[in-house]
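Kindly review these tokens for lecture notes.

. . .
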Amino acid sequence: MTTASPAVTAERSAPRTPRRRWWPTPKLIIIIAVAGAIGYLALVPLYYLLWGTFFDASGFTLGGFATAYGDSRIGSLIGNSLWFAAGSAVLSLVVGTSLAYLNVRTDVPFKALFFAASIIPLIIPGILYTISWIFLASPDIGLINKALEPVFGAAAVDIFTIWGMIWVEGLHLSPIVFLLMVAAFRSMDPSLEESALMCGATRLQVFRKITVPLTRPAIVAAVLVMAVRSLESFEVPALLGLQNGIYVFTSRIYFVLRSYPPDLAAAGALALGLLVLAVLGVAISNLVGRAGKSFQTVTGKGFRPRPMELGRWRPVMGAAIVCYFLLTVVAPLVVLLYTSLLKFYQAPSMAALRSMSLDNYVELLGLSQAATALRNSLFLGIATATLVMAVMAIAAWITVRSRIPGRQLIDQFAFVPLVIPGLVLGLALSFVYLRSPIPIYGTIFILLIAYVTRYMPYGMRYSVTSMQQIATELEESAQVSGASWWQTFRRVLLPLLAPGLLAGWIYILVVSFRELSSSILLYSPGNEVLSILIFEQYENGQFTVLAALGVVMVLTLVVLVTVAYKLGAKVGLREN
């Protein structure tokens, strides 16, 4: 008979300590939730778009492509799309680059107008800008045609052509090119141009042989970005092109989905074609951007830009700037305000001026749809901006600060919606939630999902840029002092990130408030936003009420931007 040793007996009789179960930390939960949300928003709609295009009840099929691209008009559709995108990009480049050069490199007068001419068109929604040009240049009711009729005859200008589409889209995009090229011209050493002038070259030769080559990466990138923006444009092709049967990808997708019965597979095939063109444009833009180091002119040697004197051309350029400001800013806003005060649209006359009243605004007060659309737009704008910047702030920390394997995938997934046109995104989300058991389709929340997805890349860029400017020592000091990750993020990083986050919040608020292309396929009665209501009023021929609603929309945007700008000016500034 063997006897257990005292040590073994003590081990058996000692009470067992229960094994501690592993629980995920709040930090891990937040990181997983943010990464999962970004992946879901970016990839799931694309997956369902591909599935709905290539598969039906019987399995794999190319019937959608056969229907979409077997149409005899597909050649003209592709040609119109490329011609519209290229023409708009070139026009916006010429106008925006010229204004930027005059503003930065010359002593042109009226430089204060550059700010208004570059900012105000960005605030005006695309649908209102397009409708304003219909009031100005329509062959039937356009004020410009009425003014030119005694000299050139009736319908001297027709805005409902491919050239009219290029004109409106190019002018609306030119402020973006202006802002891009201002930065390029400010970072270029002007001594190179001055040396050429001293050697006897003319200003035109200097611009063509020195200025343009040195800013070539920025110019090419601007052309490609504007071309992609034009490809995904919906307002201009829908309001101007459909009038004369001029189709591009976006307007054709809209027409296919609005016909009965809607052909989702054919619309998906067209959407994929548009997506491929957009991806190619962005890819070329990135390649050009990476090649930009060959054209660097700003080095460690300091320089101070000195504006060139225009001489006798100074008043001519000043007059040209005033004309541009009147044409692109004042005329669209004035015709919108003028129309909103009329009982019915008519050319200016003494009788028209005497008939002006605020009846359209009074009608808006009694229009329940207008109040609902305004509330929906405000809700979607504020909610989208808040959600995007809150989630992207954490996503930026994961990408920039953490050492999590595969963290760069989050940044890449967040970039995916940038190459998805708004109309394609709306179609993809309809594929998702028409099949989903979650009752989201037909509610305002599907619009919120669309807006958050569409503007996620912009929030990521603002957040990453701000995060990269903050030294890691601040976080390390807080953690050494005993602060948790969440305390460090909330009390140290967020206050330092606030200026960049607020700038992104303001931008996303503005673009969400005026969004149309991703809303047109997803809204339902009772969930309209202002841009949808304006589009419906235009289709119903309610031009005067539409104009009043447009004035209210522009004023609301101005107030929102002003208030946000005033609040943002105080963020991050502290007196010692």
